[in-house]
Write a structure and sequence with these properties.
This protein is mostly helical and 245 residues long. It has helices at residues 7-15, 17-26, 40-61, 70-90, 98-113, 128-149, 151-156, 166-205, 210-241. The protein has two domains: 1-60, no CATH class; 69-120 and 130-241, no CATH class. It has nine helices and no strands.
Amino acid sequence: MPEHEIWLTRLFNDHLAGLGNTILDTFGVHASHPDRPWPNFLIMELLVAAIIVVLFLMLRTRLSVDKPSHTQQAFEVIYEFLRGESQDQVGHDAHKYLAYFATIFIFILFSNLIGIIPGFESPTMAPSVPAGCALATFVYYNLMGIRANGILQYLKHFAGPMLWLAPFMLPIELISHLARPLSLTIRLFANMFAGEKVTVVFLSLTYFLIPAVFMGLHVFVAILQAYIFVLLTMMYVAGAVANDH
């Protein structure tokens, strides 16, 4: 049996193990523990996605110009912040990419913060989740670059400003771009894993005051890492869609 199985994962493995194995078999993946195929990070991802969907469905039905709720005001602040940051990084076409920026930011933010709730853990503590977000960003900014410039013009970005520099610039640019998903993954995973472990250690030592300090620090790190991830995403998109004349 996998170690440190949280209560929600235990429910899925006790009652939906067959469904989990069926899904894995569909993608040609075999669980290391067929009787317990659901890992913690996957269950927490599903929970975060469900919370976001339900929250926005409820928020949509209660939108008000005259009397906005506290939740609406909070998300308006997030929206305005992301819009401003994206305009600073990408430019006047930033609105075209704002939906992705907001989606990846809110998903990572909720994933980071849910671990503070007793009985849950942050899915971003598992390297698979940051890697998935990083690969999504890698695919997204390359597709947006091709859409904005055309495939030939986009590929010229990798060759450098002068043709004779292409043999030198091409391998450097390829290595740089391929390293971006790895960098995004390690940064998010390492910070969330370390923050969670520090908080757990101090909770096991004492329940008086000190753990609250580290929980506050964990919240700060969770918000900061979501911001850094989306900021780097904006920078990558800005570089990809830049039109070199």
